[in-house]
Specification:
LeuE-type; mainly alpha; membrane; 208 residues
Length: 208
Amino acid sequence: MVQFSLWLALVGAGTLISFTPGAGAIFTMSNSLNSGFRRSIWGILGQQVALVIHIVIVALGVGVLVSNSPVIFNVIRYAGAAYLVYLGIRQFLHKPDLDKEEVANKKNESALSMFQRGIWVNLLNPKAIVFFLAFMPQFIRPDQPLLQQYAVLTTTVIIIDIMVMWFFFALAARSFQRFTHDQKGQKVLNRVFGCLFVLVGILLAVIH
């Protein structure tokens, strides 16, 4: 079992990391605006699947390969950056949904579609692998059973991230809903979130 004091440190670090704005936070706020607070959970759950994949990769030691191979790292990094820029451009150019039927269709995006987009937003971020490669060893004791430790770490990080994403970022997006009732307001929001996605994508590509 994980030492309680070590687990508390993990909770503190995990909470701080989840509150740090990034692609996941922007994606969650965008989903909350477009599809509603409750349905934004599907995108959040998709992000958690990607998070688990990253942890498994690191746990299996593949993270060492990715972090030490410029070719592999850059291919994944640029793919992730390109996907975020694509999302941003699509959001930026999206026309205001003033037609009630169009709004209903957008709010009725399938849970599977939101889930899949959530996976890709987090999965195509190789820096997460490098981050976990540096982060996870701080909370793992090699002389203790590793499987249980990774299970506790993964569960803790996922629960924290879901709570922060859904009950902070998704709720925060609701305060912007008053801008969605007219064409000008929707246009402003689409451009703001579009620019944020593009900015995160560019930063992912240029920051080493």
